[in-house]
Input
Amino acid sequence: MSGRWQRPTSVPSQAVTYLALSVGALLWIAPILVMLVASLKPDGLVLPEAGTLRALVPTDASLQNYEDVFRRVPFSRILLNSVVINGAIVAGGLVVNSTAAYALARMRWPGRRVALAVVLALLVLPFEAIAVPLFYQTTMIGWRDDYLVQIVPFLASALSIYLFYTFFLGFPVELEDAARMDGAGPWRIFLEIVVPQARSVFATVAIVTFLLHWGMYLWPLLVTNGPEVRPLPLGIAAFRSLPPLQWGDIMAFAVLMVAPVVVAFLALQRWFVRGVAMTGVRG
Amino acid sequence: MRARAGILSSDPRLVSARTAGLMAGPALLGLLLFVATPFLLALVLSTTDARMGSPLPTGFVGLEQYRRLLASESFRHALVNNAWFAAVVVPMQTGLALGAALLLDRGLRGTVVFRVAFFLPVVFPMAMIAVVWELLYAPGPDGALNALLDVVTFGAWAPRDFLRDPILAMPSLIALSIWQGMGFQMVVLLAGLQAIPDRLYEAAALDGAGAWGRFRHITLPGLRDPLTFVVVITAILAFRVFDQVRILTRGGPHDRTTTVMYEAVTAAFARQQIARSAAMTVVFFVLVLAVSLLGLAVARRRSR
Output
């Protein structure tokens, strides 16, 4: 990188940039720090110290709050629910949406143009525009409070199909032709030639799908009753309203629920950023 | 499953409709059942008087639900609140994100740390953010934000109950929303900045353009598409707001923080008024569509 509009060469200019970035980053990290520190403090100290600089000091640090989380709610179960639901949405979504996109991009079949138009039209529909009627639909057939009602409606995704579709369109058709000459059928060509070359788009779609669904609160709120199939976002909201109000425990719940995702994010940072920047999807 | 086993097709793209159907079928069926159908159902339901779990037969009422919505004070409040939310969040979040992206684009060492810090909340669920921020918003002089404001105003700040204060409740929701979303806009704008070729800057520098001139005539025009993109996405998100309202304020105090989605879900979920809720869903969709088309029109006009 050189010749940017304002590349700072002088030391004072660099110092000002660092200073501005540091102040901003500190402001952005502060709520996360407060959460971490509060999760380690005895419950009784969290609120009284929240208004002082001691909010950032883990007084009498212990893991008591974390123990309390597991004692007061079936946290492992709620975590498992999130893992199962999002794992199934991501894995199942990769399969059905990539094959659909491949059929749309590479095969000629009756109705292809209509199907493509429908997929593109559905891109502008946010989930909120269908949440209520979908809730009506599933309630009418008595479908609620299980894993499937939180998975199946979200497998097919216009956005994922679109992402795969644009990738497959740009994929060199010669490779596939060569395989066809060798007598490979469409499934083998897709699995052995196309998929290995499309790893990056699979990774992007997987991350985007995960980010889009793992924070979902509205849908499980509508279709689940108890903690048996409830995912993490609903779990923390319910834990917040569970008396007695103990901020240390709530913050420990928050840390526990995001820690795995933060670790994954730090390890795969570029992929996360790329996926979000490409699609405008966020948690 | 193999199409035309043994026969080499002369057109490499021609395979049996059955294979195509197997490949495309599941996803298309899913979209039809769980996206297209509910959307059409919303249109139909909104012209009826359907109530969930009601033994009474459902009747056609035309546009009556829409007429009632427009006459409803709380729905009007919701529309105004969504508009206010968008009017504050879109420019503030875009401005902050642009500032951060420009600072990060200066090519200094170690900026990845800052990028991670700004981006981290983007991967957090809103439900968790709402609960964490509720602690920051704790009422009384001990509350973190109250105490901070007391310090920066040299004691002039009287402690407020942010989430129950008619004036401060909405700005409080706005603040945590910006905190979550800024990193998203920042990475889109940063990618846009890095896509501007260096030679444009070099040429401008040769022509004697100063830093401001280069920003004004190269950076900003180069950012048009990403800026339009983030503004449209953020405006749409502003109309989708639900989680933080439901968890922190439940639309209160006195409708000050209610939103279209909050009204729609409450009508369907708490009051079984599915037809009314469907009408709200349709209004919501029309708003989102309008914002999208506006963004598209802006992008088209500029690219000409």
